[in-house]
Amino acid sequence: MSSNIPVPHQSNNAAHDADEIDLFELFQSIWQEKILIVIITAVVTVLALIYALTATPIYQTQATLVPPPAYAVQGYNEGRMEAFRGVSEKGKDGASDNSAKAFTVNDIFKVYLSNLNSLQLRNSFFEEVYLPSLSAEQQKNSRESLLKTFNKILSVKQGDPKTNPNLYQVSVELDNPDEAASWVTQYIDRATTATKLELKKNIEAEQSVRINALSSQITSLLDTAKKEREDQMNLLKEALYIAEAIGLENASPQSDKASLGGNRYIDNDLIYTRGAKTLRAQLAVLEKRSSDEPFIPGFRELNTQLELLRAYKLNDADVSVVTIDEAAEVPTAPIKPNKKLIVAVGIVLGGMLGVFAALIRSMIRKRKNAA
């Protein structure tokens, strides 16, 4: 009795043999078109090589910036701390010290970084350096497009925030190596100039405010002293009138009760007891007084401080707002194009296109044979 039950493993073996035949035919078809594959690969490789040799080389250079040393910023504090020293008002409880704050390295570098990353500096460099370097045809592009290109060319980057938070790099990518190095240097110099100018204006503004405030304080003290002297003269005139009216020429025993410290009075009604002779002498002295300055407590200190403020001149010629840790050098080798990589990609891409073309050609040939 014969069995008609199919054997599963026999079907699997047949399918496996068919796959092997298909793969064999595939490789055979590719091999038959090896010349086509070689030609296409060679053509694409040659095109890639031509591009690598003719593409405009791009050079990159950069400068590394760090904060200035402590001694380099002392020029902003020398003379300024003495001239901007606060003077508290005498006789006032809890008078606050309004002395100037010394500039630190971080203060100066913070201002520099603000200018280095400012849109104002970038836009001025774009207008004054980048645009003039373009051809007339290139300048016809939209401003937005030109700015986008410029931002790719010039970049300011911070170092690793964890390891080097105070390290910054200014880099430029151009087809002219000399110009690339020049642009980096120019950009850094412009940031330096802007920083020094900003600090100078801030210091001069503070100087002006302090001069005005101190001048107003001195004027107020002089006005007050003048009014107090006039008040004292009026009191003496009234007292003299009384003394002369009652015929009191010399001081009476009660005069000791009318004075305290020689010039200040407990009871103004008793001033006349000092006698007409004394009152005339005091009144004459006050009338002949040409200046109240010697009688104002702390006036000389205030006046000296005002003279220091007016005489102060910032000398920022020898100060530094940044340290160029690594200056920009003229690059000798371009970073773009990478010729080896371009040729390698050309070979791989050419081979893939060649195989693809070989498979298509093989399929077309099979269809023709089948027909």
Shape: rod-shaped
Helix content: 55-70%
CATH topology of the largest domain: Bacterial polysaccharide co-polymerase-like
Count of distinct strands: 4
For the CA atoms, what is the radius of gyration? 46 Å
Largest sheet: 4 strands, antiparallel
Output the CATH class name of the largest domain: Alpha Beta
The percentage of residues in β strands lies in 5-15%
Trace the largest sheet across and list its strands: 2-3-1-4
- The number of helical segments is 10
Unreliable stretches covering 5 or more consecutive residues: 88-96, 260-266
Name the structural class: alpha+beta
Describe this structure in words.
With about 375 residues, the protein is an alpha+beta fold. The chain folds into 2 domains: about 30 residues; about 280 residues, 2-Layer Sandwich (Bacterial polysaccharide co-polymerase-like). The chain has 10 helices and 4 strands. Helix 2 runs antiparallel to helix 10, helix 7 packs antiparallel against helix 8 and helix 7 packs antiparallel against helix 9. The radius of gyration is 46 Å and the shape is rod-shaped. About 5% of the residues have low confidence.
